[in-house]
Design goal:
Blueprint: H1 2-19, E1 21-27, E2 33-39, E3 42-47, E4 50-54, E5 60-63, E6 74-79, E7 85-89, E8 94-97, E9 104-107, E10 120-126, E11 129-134, E12 137-142, E13 148-152, E14 164-169, E15 173-177, E16 180-184, E17 197-201, E18 211-217, E19 220-225, E20 228-233, E21 236-241, E22 249-253, E23 256-260, E24 264-268, E25 272-277, E26 283-288, E27 294-298, E28 301-306, E29 309-313, E30 325-328, E31 334-337, E32 347-350, E33 355-358, E34 371-376, E35 380-387, E36 390-394, E37 397-401, E38 418-425, E39 431-435, E40 444-447, E41 453-456, E42 468-474, E43 480-485, E44 491-496, E45 508-512, E46 523-528, E47 534-538, E48 541-545, E49 567-572, E50 578-582, E51 585-589, E52 596-600, E53 614-618, E54 623-628, E55 631-637, E56 650-652, E57 656-658, E58 666-669, E59 676-681, E60 686-691, E61 697-700, E62 713-720, E63 727-736
Parallel strand pairs: 57-63
Antiparallel strand pairs: 1-55, 2-3, 3-4, 4-5, 6-7, 7-8, 8-9, 10-11, 11-12, 12-13, 14-15, 15-16, 16-17, 18-19, 19-20, 20-21, 22-23, 23-24, 24-25, 26-27, 27-28, 28-29, 30-31, 31-32, 32-33, 34-35, 35-36, 35-38, 36-37, 38-39, 39-40, 40-41, 42-43, 43-44, 44-45, 46-47, 47-48, 49-50, 50-51, 51-52, ...
Length: 737
């Protein structure tokens, strides 16, 4: 009975938390396009960041998990006779989008199969049948009711479950597979039966190691391959065009044969002609519409070629899909690092509407693009670089700090190669810089507000060795906390210069290891919460130091629900709830960590993956940003930083129309911390009373104490703080149907 009661309470908290989530939005890079098609001058593209449509007025429609698509990894696109757009994904989902209604249907049968790889490689539609090419065979779907018609897992003498790349329907049904070409025998229509199919094997019959597409041209069969364009001559198959050049795709239109190579599109009708060519790009597929408009899928976007003019199509979005580090600055802008060493391509900025990209080409102060960490303070943003120190952005100006203008010492093998893992400002505005691998054994530096530099070498009880450091936070006492990895005594280290950075004699330092209370030596994330507690994320759960002035007060029993979870990131929202990024999604806990409020995963939310890399929160707008290797997800919540008084108290929508068939919600905005709410009717009668969720906003469900919807009328919302020092009120009109 107790276990059952605990379960009920647990799920009631999850439902309560879900009510505080207003919306989800995915932001992805859609430049890596896998497939394209055109219908009625609209270009549809399938990319690694979702799908998008492009109209001739230069407008875009983006479709990701937040719009109802089952996955952002879209691998195939096709259009049926009813103008529904079909999308296939790498996980095996088939999504059908109706442009008129905006409705999305999802076929789950392929995704739910026991196969280890379920990727949909292509979709071909003929009449009322969609031929879906998958990693294990061919699946036929009815385009009218989206039911499964048949599955073809063996084609003649090919091995069972041979991957199918695509299907071409001409004089017969041709199937391009990993083993070679299969085609339906004349007079046999039982497609799942292996004997229905004839085979043409790679290498022994086809002069190639792989084939990619097939078409019929002038009553002859042409196959694109890694060795060129292959044609059947009597009983043999020979390379007839583009010998030893890989041909990726082939199609026929208006009496001409079109073929796609790595960076060029060719047209052949007795003479080879290059229709379009672009350097430094990788093509994959193409589509030609009846008006000779061409769409080419590439790693730089969809190339749309029409009327002898080309443009590259992709909607505004982040430049990459990998988000190892994020921060929200003092103006509410999101900044993102992109990677270390060779992976970094610069810095991303998002103002809530438009994504911008900064690299060494458009930002001259950048010496390299390897910005792997970002952080912000009251008036500055810091970009930590892998090798060239860091860059500070303040008052619309960038300043580079590296071996040329500082005395910071870099890694042992190259003292000028300075890897910075974090930069944070303390309460005095001094910037603390965490040096990843300082050859001079001074892993922590301080740049004061008057531009003086100090570098700190830790002696006993800290390790005198060269150490590798990561994850810096600063508590309310200006103590710097960071993790030490690699050789020596790894664990959690702390340092405080006692307000006198120039005086080394009064510095305080120490360390906490597994032998002194730390549950695990791997410190993956650190955060200071609203009560000043230090939250420590490890590879096997959460530790807490409730009073950082007493490092020995470490506890590891407070966040029980996070036991054995690999913590990659921690964020604290305005009402002190904890958000944890893990390898199993995002966990949300109560302020003290005792209650698990929610666990958001790719299965129950729009998250593209369960492996979370970074977290940050826009406190002014209540937005939780979740960074992954497949894009960033913005969770819009009611957890917003509270106001200092009730001068801006208001409620919306106003008026509101309610009925028993709806679930009305009144949003109350402009609250102070931990406000109490009273709902009164116009005569002053108390209708309902409740406590806010803690931040600037809360909600009222238009119900009285007994859970009944209120009658039509004017209602007064009175808000006051816990000590009744601040009181505010506003009115709302309710129309009851």
């Amino acid at each position: 009975m107790i276990k059952f009661l605990a379960t009920v309470i647990f799920f009631s908290f999850i439902n309560l938390s879900a009510q505080q989530i207003k919306s989800w939005q995915n932001y992805t890079d859609k430049k890596f396009v896998n497939d394209v098609t055109i219908k009625e001058s609209v270009v549809w593209s399938a990319s690694n960041g979702g799908a998008f449509g492009f109209w001739q007025d230069s407008s875009y429609l983006s479709l990701t998990k937040s719009e109802g698509i089952a996955s952002n990894l879209i691998t195939a696109v096709e259009i049926d006779e009813k103008n529904n757009i079909w999308f296939g994904t790498s996980e095996g989902y088939v999504n059908i989008y109706n442009p008129e209604t905006g409705k999305i249907n999802t076929v789950l049968q392929i995704f739910k199969t026991y196969k280890s790889i379920k990727t949909i490689n292509d979709i071909t539609i003929s009449g009322d049948t969609a031929f879906v090419s998958t990693a294990f065979g061919l699946v036929l779907i009815n385009t009218n009711d989206f039911s499964i018609l048949d599955s073809v897992l063996k084609f003649g003498d090919f091995s069972s479950e041979t991957p199918v790349y695509n299907v071409y329907i001409g004089s017969t049904i041709y199937v391009v597979t990993q083993a070679g070409l299969a085609f339906k025998k004349t007079g046999l229509n039982n497609l799942p039966a292996p004997e229905t199919w004839d085979n043409v094997f790679l290498q022994s019959q086809l002069p190639a190691n792989s084939i990619s597409a097939i078409t019929e041209f002038n009553n002859e069969v042409y196959i694109s391959s890694n060795r060129g364009l292959i044609k059947k001559n009597n009983n043999s198959w020979d390379i007839v065009l583009y010998n030893n050049n890989e041909v990726l795709d082939v199609q026929v239109l208006n009496g001409s044969l079109y073929s796609l190579q790595s960076n060029s599109l060719h047209k052949y009708n007795g003479i080879d002609e290059i229709v379009y060519q672009k350097e430094n790009v990788e093509f994959s597929k193409f589509f030609i519409s009846d008006d000779n408009s061409i769409a080419i899928a590439s790693n730089l976007g969809t190339i749309y070629y029409s009327n002898n003019s080309a443009k590259i199509l992709f909607p505004n979005g982040p430049k990459v899909n990998s988000f190892p580090s994020m921060t929200v600055d003092f103006e509410g802008n999101l900044w993102c690092g992109t990677g270390d060493d060779v992976n970094g391509i610069g810095v991303l900025k998002f103002n809530g509407e438009i994504w911008e990209f900064l690299d060494k080409n458009n930002t001259p102060v950048f010496k390299t693009n390897s910005f792997h960490r970002v952080s912000s303070s009251k008036n500055s943003v810091y970009f930590s670089n892998w090798g060239y120190g860091f860059v500070r952005y303040r008052d619309n100006a960038f300043i580079q700090f590296d071996a040329d203008n500082t005395d910071i010492v870099g890694i042992p093998v190259d003292n000028d190669f300075i890897v910075i893992n974090d930069v944070l400002e303390d309460n005095s505005g001094n910037a603390s810089i965490l040096n990843f691998w300082a050859a001079d054994k001074k892993p922590l530096s301080v740049l004061t507000v008057d531009n003086n530099w100090y570098h700190y070498q830790f002696a006993s009880p800290l390790s005198p060795e060269i150490v590798q450091t990561k994850n810096l936070v600063i508590d309310q006492y200006n103590t710097k906390w960071f993790g030490v990895i690699g050789l020596g005594e790894v664990g959690l280290y702390y340092f405080n210069e006692n307000g006198t950075p120039e005086n080394l004699s009064d510095d305080i330092w120490g360390k906490i290891t597994t032998s002194t209370g730390l549950r695990d030596k791997d410190i993956n994330a650190l955060a200071i919460d609203k009560f000043g507690e230090l939250i420590i994320g490890t590879s096997i759960g959460i530790d807490v130091i409730p009073e950082p002035s007493n490092p020995n007060s470490i506890r590891n029993d407070q966040y029980f629900s996070m036991r054995q979870q690999t913590i990659n990131a921690i964020a604290v929202d305005p009402i002190n709830q904890k958000w944890f990024g893990t390898e199993k999604g995002v966990f949300l806990t109560s302020s003290d960590g005792s209650v698990l409020l929610a666990n958001y995963t790719k299965s129950n939310s729009t998250l593209p993956t369960d492996n979370i890399k970074s977290l940050t929160i826009d406190e002014q707008n209540g937005i939780v940003y979740v960074g992954t290797d497949f894009g960033v997800t913005a969770i819009s919540t009611l957890f917003i930083k509270p106001n200092k008084d009730f001068s801006n108290l208001y409620a919306y929508p106003n008026p509101i129309t309610i009925s028993s068939a709806t679930n009305p919600i009144i949003n109350i905005d402009g609250l102070v911390e931990d406000s109490e709410i009273k709902i009164l009717d116009i005569s002053g009668k108390l209708i309902n009373q409740f406590k806010s969720i803690g931040g600037r906003t809360t909600t009222w469900n238009c119900k009285d104490f007994n859970g009944r919807l209120v009658a039509s009328g004017i209602y007064i919302i009175v808000a006051f703080d816990s000590e009744i020092n601040e009181v505010g009120h506003t009115k709302i009109a309710v129309l009851r149907k």
